[in-house]
Design a protein that fits this description.
Number of strands of chain C: 8
Number of domains of chain C: 1
Chains: A alpha/beta (461), B alpha+beta (412), C mainly beta (97)
CATH topology of chain C: Ubiquitin-like (UB roll)
Oligomer: heterotrimer
CATH class of chain C: Alpha Beta
CATH architecture of the largest domain in chain A: 3-Layer(bba) Sandwich
Number of strands of chain A: 23
Order of helices and strands of chain C: EEEHEEEEE
Strand order of the largest sheet of chain C: 3-2-8-6-7
Helix content of chain A: 25-40%
Helix content of chain C: under 10%
Number of helices of chain A: 12
Shape of chain A: globular
Largest interface: A-C, 51 and 42 residues
CATH class of the largest domain in chain A: Alpha Beta
Radius of gyration of chain A: 22 Å
CATH topology of the largest domain in chain A: FAD/NAD(P)-binding domain
Structural class of chain C: mainly beta
Number of domains of chain A: 3
Radius of gyration of chain C: 13 Å
Distance between the termini of chain C: 29 Å
Strand content of chain C: 25-35%
Structural class of chain A: alpha/beta
Shape of chain C: globular
CATH superfamily of chain C: 2Fe-2S iron-sulphur cluster binding domain, sarcosine oxidase, alpha subunit, N-terminal domain
């Protein structure tokens, strides 16, 4: 239960995000006797990878998550759920975290060290018609079918890249849905055999992929490589999908009512950037990632970023990064940390990173997806700014992300640029013939999530 | 004047990309500009536009993105009510007259519309000040009228009646989008030959034998016979490189904006307390101001702290302070989601009059900063400063705004 | 009806909410988005500028597309809001209504 009395709650170690990275960091820190305050935005810990299905909906705890979740009931763990961290500011030797949650939640937390484990979200890839009801992310569809026990459509088209799409297809088929096709924008991964050593030991993952593949074969669902959805059509909601080869002109129209976009994940970086941690564009991940040292500490002393929020690596990389950062934070908090524990964690982290790198290598976000854009494609969903409006402002002289944003207002809506930031950067890069990292950065400002006016106050009214 | 032309350095961005052709201005390659404008905000972009339009070969240099200084934090008010009486008011009214046709002149929709403005009165002292102000404004032909509490709340039903005594109301005041105005000035300027360098820092103004020779920048040196310093708060440190001690101060100003809301405030609103503001010794104060934008987002501000530092960093105390003030005046905002904030140095002068015009002892150097209500003055300031270069500006009364006027006065 | 609930093992009692004035049954633990989708409603609102229909997109509270009015409070994310008995849900609005 959160401490209801102190307004300036204090903590030695604050961990933001209760997904695998945050949970593992909390467990590791607690093993070393460091009391932990864990803040999470969802009603139940677990993040996305370890999302807990509500018990009323036949929720059964995930086998992998169970031990980490059970640790949370230990005395020295304080868990503040349903609460957002909307800003981080340097304060003395540590950091002031600004919180907003339901009535009775503390508003401020003063922490000596901070581990950010904010996770990631589905990479938005715009195309004509992508805002129609019935177009949703693969993550949204997976959450609905797994954790809300709802099949969100009848006839599905999956478009994106990577093995997660097969996992989603399997869930949809098992739930009684029809999968018209799964489109992977990348060519068939012939290179996969070269990565066999990295796959050694990842039996569970491989088994899951194999099971998904078999389910699809049985159901007759087509898996088409090098293909993508070009356009969503319908009268007020999705009724048809126009699909075709990536970088090609052929099209084919198929009748579907739901399109699930699974183009991989993009890190959630707003909070770390607002805090002032330096970020740099990574061309392999095609995202801005925090600059970290070998202890996963950012350019701000005492702030660490771990898990998908620092670069997509999956739930196992996330856990081992969480553990490593917890060891580093514990050392800074004058706890004794055994050298062989550090070595063991580093070893396991390296092993998991090798496998994660395989997926990034085989299933990168395709560079050709910018070809899908037409002038009337809405790029900024919140403010309804089209590709054409952005092109016009560029022709008039705007040459940086910020300049485009300021004049068109793309990125100034409620989602605070999370949906359109990447797509606008990629469009600008193409229009100007420049690499994305030459276009400047837009610095997120507090509050990094929308907060009601009265929620910004230091004390609840 | 005969200056040896220096070739302008080719544009480089990011350090690892090939040089791009520089933007705008066919004269640029192998030549030099006649004038360099330092600072790509509301004032700098207007001056650059007016210079280019007058046939002066002009280069506008901005350290970040255009309008990324105080201009980007501007609420967009086209405001007459708060002008200083005398020459400032006269110039404000002259400038204001150009707004009706500014959009057409710039061939760009800058979002200009008349919405009205309220200076909100909280106490008797402010009431007395506003009554005086109303009289003087009316005498100058401005439709400023004093409203009592009931009249004010009828005009703006969401205002908390217990917070106010009344307001000074001017229905003719308006709003526009400051980013679009800056964009419009530079776009039109480019059509007339203006060159624009963004993400380029001017490290110094070069002066030789009592006359300006050009500027040193992160892209190399630029020779020019005229340098116009329109860099807001940054003008002070730039002025030092030319041996000037400009009487410029600034506050670290912070404000915020909500997501789109249903229409709830037609007028711009500002507390009359701004007129009785005393400079605190570095503590943060909040002067309430509010403006609802066309899409429905409500801007609220302004937390301010006098400081010597130049910073864009948000503070932990500003947002709660701004939120508390906004809630006091418009309780209906209580649950409105705040989605963004900003923090920027905003320049001011001790006597609330701009630094505008030539500098004693340095020929060819002009300063244009420290304006109180910036947007409304952009057309006229642009015209006047361009006229100082071409020789058309001859109003002797402008010495009132001389950047050198406080040179012998004690500074804080 | 495009979306359909999957069979439940536990016999959890349903609760009643209203959607645009009509009574609708929901399971505790479901989000407002789930309830709307299960009731055949995919369009949650219309945009301010182009009056375009929007519904669920990211499903995790990041995109701010799935906005509905809950118990009088506008612009609430349906995917992040668990239902309660008696909840009043209104769809189809826009910010500057």
């Amino acid at each position: 239960m959160p401490d209801l009395i102190a307004q300036h709650l204090q903590a030695e170690l604050a961990i933001v995000g209760a997904g695998p990275a945050g949970l593992a960091a909390a467990a590791e820190a607690s093993d070393l006797g460091v009391p932990v305050t864990l803040i999470d935005i969802f009603p139940r810990p677990g993040g996305q990878y370890f999302k807990q299905t509500p018990p009323e909906l036949d929720g059964v705890p995930d086998g992998h998550a169970r031990p980490l979740l059970d640790r949370l009931s230990r005395a020295e763990m304080e868990v503040i759920s349903d609460t957002a961290v909307w800003g981080i500011f340097p304060e003395g030797e540590g950091y002031l975290l600004c919180l907003y949650g339901p009535a009775g939640t503390p508003r401020r937390l003063l922490a000596k060290k901070v581990i950010l484990a904010p996770g990631a979200y589905d990479r938005p890839v715009p195309f004509p018609g992508w805002t129609l009801p019935g177009v949703m992310t693969a993550g949204a569809a997976l959450t609905l079918v797994k954790h809300q026990r709802l099949l969100p459509g009848r006839r599905f088209l999956l478009s994106g890249t990577g093995p997660l799409q097969l996992v989603l297809a399997r869930h949809l088929l098992d739930a009684g849905g029809e999968v018209a096709a799964v489109l992977d924008a990348n060519p068939f991964p012939w290179r996969a055999w070269r990565h066999a050593p990295a796959a050694w030991g990842q039996w569970e993952r491989l088994a899951e992929g194999w099971a998904a593949w078999r389910t699809m074969r049985k159901a007759g669902a087509a898996l088409r490589w090098g293909h993508v959805v070009r356009r969503a059509e319908g009268e007020g909601e999705v009724a048809r999908a126009v699909i075709g080869p990536v970088g090609g002109d052929d099209t084919e129209t198929i009748a579907v009512d739901t399109i699930c976009l699974g183009h991989g994940l993009t890190p959630s970086v707003h909070l770390a950037r607002q805090a002032g941690c330096e970020h740099r564009y990574d061309p392999v991940q095609q995202a801005c990632l925090p600059v970290r040292d070998e202890w996963l500490q950012t350019t701000l002393s005492g702030i660490f970023v771990v898990g998908d929020g620092a670069g997509i690596g999956g739930k196992d990389v996330a856990q081992w990064e969480g553990r490593l950062a917890a060891l580093a934070a514990a050392r800074k908090l004058a706890r004794t940390v055994a050298a062989d524990r550090i070595a063991a964690v580093r070893r396991e982290l390296a092993r998991q990173r090798r496998f994660a790198a395989v997926l990034i290598d085989l299933f990168p976000a395709s560079a050709h997806l910018g070809d899908l854009l037409t002038d009337d494609t809405v790029l900024c969903r919140c403010e309804e700014i089209t590709v054409g409006e952005i092109r016009r402002v560029v022709a008039e002289g705007a040459e940086t992300l910020n300049a485009v944003r300021m004049v068109t207002r793309a990125g100034m809506g409620r989602c605070q640029g999370r949906m359109c930031g990447g797509p606008v950067a990629e469009l600008l890069a193409r229009e100007l013939g420049q690499p994305v990292d030459a276009l400047g950065q837009v610095t997120p400002r507090p509050p990094v999530v929308p907060v009601p006016l009265e929620g910004l106050l230091e004390e609840e009214a | 004047m005969n200056l040896t032309p220096l070739p302008l350095s080719p544009h480089r961005r990011g350090g690892n990309s090939a040089p791009l052709p520089s933007q705008g201005g066919g004269w640029e390659v192998g030549g030099t500009p006649d004038a360099v404008v330092v600072g790509g905000g509301l004032i700098g972009s207007s001056i650059a536009y007016h210079l280019a339009r007058a046939g002066v070969r002009t280069l506008l240099i901005e350290q970040g993105d255009l309008a990324s200084g105080a201009s980007g934090a501007n609420f967009g008010n086209v405001q007459v009510e708060d002008a200083e009486f005398g020459l400032s008011l006269e110039l404000t009214l002259r400038s204001y007259a150009r707004f009706a046709s500014l959009g057409a002149e710039l061939d760009y929709d800058v979002g200009y519309r008349k919405t009205g403005n309220l200076l909100l009165i909280e106490n008797q002292h402010q009431w007395a000040m506003m009554r005086q102000r109303a009289t003087r404004l009316q005498a100058a032909g401005v439709r400023a009228v004093l409203l009592d509490r009931d009249e004010t709340c009828r005009l703006e039903p969401h205002l908390a009646p217990e917070a106010i005594l009344g307001a000074l109301y001017n229905p003719d005041e308006g709003m526009l989008d400051p980013f679009r105005l800056v964009h419009a000035y530079t776009r039109r300027g480019r059509d007339a030959g203006l060159a624009v360098w963004t993400h380029t820092r001017v490290s110094g103004i070069v002066v030789r034998s009592g006359r300006v020779a050009g500027v040193a920048t992160t892209r190399g040196s630029v020779s020019a016979g005229w340098v116009i310093l329109a860099a807001g708060a940054w003008s002070r440190e730039l002025g030092r490189t030319a041996g000037l001690d400009l009487p410029l101060q600034w506050v670290h100003g912070e404000a915020a904006i909500t997501g789109p809301l249903p229409p709830m405030a037609r007028n711009a609103m500002t507390t009359a307390a701004f007129f009785e503001a005393t400079e605190g010794a570095g503590e943060q104060t909040v002067g309430f101001c509010l403006r609802q934008r066309p899409h429905g987002n409500v801007m609220i501000g302004e937390a301010a702290r006098v400081t010597q530092r130049l910073s864009r960093a948000a503070t932990a105390t500003a947002l709660p302070a701004v939120a508390a003030e906004a809630e006091r005046w418009l309780p209906a905002l209580r649950r409105a989601a705040v989605i963004r904030s900003w923090a920027i140095p905003v320049a001011f002068t001790a006597d609330s009059r701009p630094l505008l015009g030539p500098v004693d002892g340095v020929a060819g150097l002009l300063v244009a900063t420290g304006l109180k209500s910036t947007i409304i003055l952009t057309p006229l300031v642009g015209e006047l400063v361009a006229g100082m270069v071409t020789g058309e500006t001859r109003d002797a009364r402008l010495v009132e705004f001389s950047p050198s006027r406080m040179r012998d006065a004690a500074q804080d | 009806m495009r979306s359909s609930r999957l069979p439940r093992a536990s016999g959890s009692a349903m609760v009643e909410v209203t959607v645009d004035g009509d009574p609708v049954q929901a399971y505790p633990g479901e989000t407002v988005a789930t309830v709307l989708l299960a009731a055949g409603r995919r369009t949650f609102r219309h945009t301010d500028h182009l009056h375009a229909p929007r519904g669920l997109f990211c499903g995790m509270g990041v995109c701010f597309d799935c906005l509905v009015t809950v118990d009088g409070q506008a612009n609430v994310r349906a995917c992040m809001t668990p239902v309660r008995a008696g909840m009043i849900i209104e769809t189809g609005g826009s910010s500057d209504a």
